[in-house]
Amino acid sequence: MNDLSMATTQALALLVSGDTEIWEIIFLSFSVSFRAILVASPVAVLIAFCLSYFHFPGRRFLIALFNTAMSIPAVVVGLTLYLLLSRAGPLGDLKLLFTQEAMIFGQIVLCFPLLVALSHVALQAVDRRAWETAITLGVHPFRAVFTVLKEARFGLIAAIIAGFGRIIAEVGSSMMVGGNILHYTRNIPTAIALETSKGSFAQGIALGFVLLLMALLLNLFLTYVQAKGDTHL
Predict the structure, then answer these.
(1) Which of 30-39, 85-94, 113-122, 217-226 comes out lowest in average pLDDT?
(2) CA-based diameter of the chain, in Å?
(3) Domain boundaries, given as residue ranges, for the chain
């Protein structure tokens, strides 16, 4: 049995045996990313709605800004937040550096432009008459907004899935502001980077399997959502 086969076998054994350290890392990774997407999604959808249905000075600039920000590298976000949160930084008194809260903040910054941009596209695809009719009939603005969001729900779900996929596998920001501290801020990508650098591949392969499985499940769910959306057209 070669080294790769042995490492793969050991990786599967770690997952199946319920290795405490492995599953703690997996749980922490999903916990941080779920909290980030839960915080970012409502605000991003609201901003996307305003960009889609209201006209105001700077609207086109904001759309272009969010579209451009989608491509910001995670390591740049991590470096910026590190400088802000370090002791010498303007937010150093908050003492958030190397905490899960800092990781969540970094992931929110990473996924927010993507959520806004994709939600904007989804809302633009909705027939504007749904909004105009609701307002004309005197429907309460909150109900009118809900009507539009319901029409765009499949596109919005796809945007949220894409946002989650963007942050669950990022390593640059989490490494810089989280510090990769065992039992506290070590998530799947940072653990893979650490174990690989040490030449210990079993744990890295095990965590890689989890990311691949998650990517497969997310894509299957996204395909299902898009198919459901097509049947409602």
Answers:
(1) 217-226
(2) 73
(3) 3-228
Strands (E), the chain: none
> Which of 103-107, 152-156, 197-201 has the highest mean predicted lDDT (pLDDT)?
103-107
Contact 121, 155 (CB under 8 A): yes
pLDDT tens digit sequence for 136-190? 777 777 888 888 898 899 899 999 999 999 999 999 999 999 999 998 999 999 9
Task: Give the span between the Cα atoms of 7 and 13, in whole angstroms.
Answer: 10
Tokens describing residue 195 = 């174990």
The fold for domain 3-228 equals: MetI-like fold (1.10.3720)
**How far are the Cα atoms of 12, 141, 229, 231 from residue 7, in angstroms, in the given order?**
9, 58, 42, 45
